[in-house]
Amino acid sequence: MASGYEHAEHHSAIPYVVVWVILLACTALTYLTGTAHLGKWALPVAMTIAVFKSSLVAIIFTHLRESGCATRLVFVTALVFVALLIFFTVADVATRFSLSTPAGAPFGTERSQPEGLLEHETPDE
Amino acid sequence: MSRRGSSVAHEAEATPGFEGVPPELIGHHFSSAARQNEAMRLGMWLFLATEVLLFAGLFCGYAVYRFQFPLAFEECSRHLNIPLGTLNTVVLITSSFTVALAIHFARTDRRRASAICLAITLLFALAFLGIKSVEYLEHFKEHALPGKYYSSEEVKVPGAAMFYTLYFLMTGLHGFHVVAGMSVLSYILFRTLQGRYSSAYYTGVELGGLYWHLVDLVWIFLYPLLYLI
Q1: For residue A62, which phi and psi values (nearest 5 degrees)?
Q2: How many contacts, defined by CB atoms under 8 Å, are there between A and B?
Q3: What is the ipTM of this complex?
């Protein structure tokens, strides 16, 4: 930690400029890949770029490396819990059979088609 | 106990950046300015962690409804104004960069440069809100509104209303954070102009900057999820 502050004594603004340029380049890359209709690869590609961009912001712009262990622990713990929340939710909904919208549910512009219902349901239930 | 005492002494010696802090800026319950800075940073990061988890809940909701209405989400996101969304991403990333520069100038005793960077950040934040409100106006005109208020003629797929519910919730909450961040940064700009920060004491600039980076971070995920896929 001490070395971090000593380093801060004579640090320059160049790393921030470099990170900014990389972030802009990544935004352009996200835009190009996002509008290229990559199909099932669109989501993983976009999320990989987003994770890369956010780690640049979180580690270099916020000086996380100079912070104490407790601060880094807070950061990592938050990330772990976000990962747990998203992973198990997605693992659940991704492995279900395709859901149907119940008739009359306020989700859509109109009622879903009766064939979208489960077998034991009738549209007027 | 003695070990703890020695580590405190060691820390105070080893952090040259915190010498010469005016004693009135150090709380009586902190042994040194370095300790106080560390505690303030930790507190800010704890707060940011709760903010991240708040947004994570919304992202989770997004994931669930995306699986339920893949078609509607695809069509609606294609219908959003992608150029404006991309422009807003560039604006926010650049504002995060100017905040990082403001912190850098504050800790190297260049107060004027720091104040200018903070002012530019505030202008970028205003630009972001302006662009966002242009987009919101488009949605209002199309009646692309959340939940039961959705009556857009453009996308008529079941689930479109759910997309716009999440869209308005996520961008709206993010917008509130932009406004909150702007008030924090204005206060810090005011204090910078008063000459309260120096290389010895710049914790305020640093913590305000941290909040702004969070605002940027959330948008980095919102942009591809809402606009591009």
Answers
A1: -95, 0
A2: 171
A3: 0.84
User: Domain total for chain B?
Assistant: 1
B7 inside domain: no
Which residue from B15, B56, B94 is facing A5, i.e. has the nearest CB?
A: B15
Closest by Cβ to B64, choosing from A58, A75, A93: A93
* pLDDT single digits (tens) B18-51: 667 777 778 888 888 888 888 899 999 999 999 9
Q: Which domain holds residue B216?
A: 30-228
A48 vs B contacts (CB less than 8 Å): none
Nearest-angstrom CA–CA distance, A73 and A90: 25
In the predicted structure, residue B214 carries a pLDDT above the cut 90:
yes
Residue A119 binned pLDDT confidence (cut-offs 50, 70, 90) = very low
* Domain containing residue B136: CATH number: 1.20.120.80
Residue B211 lies in a domain: yes
Please name the residue ranges forming H helices in chain B: 2-14, 33-68, 70-79, 82-107, 111-142, 160-193, 203-223
Which chain B residue has the Cα nearest residue A71?
B42
Measured between beta carbons, the chain B residues lying within 8 angstroms of A110 are 156, 158
Element (H, E) at A88: helix A69-94
Tell me, yes or no, if B137 comes closer than 8 A to chain A by beta carbon: no
The answer to whether residue B61 is domain-embedded is yes
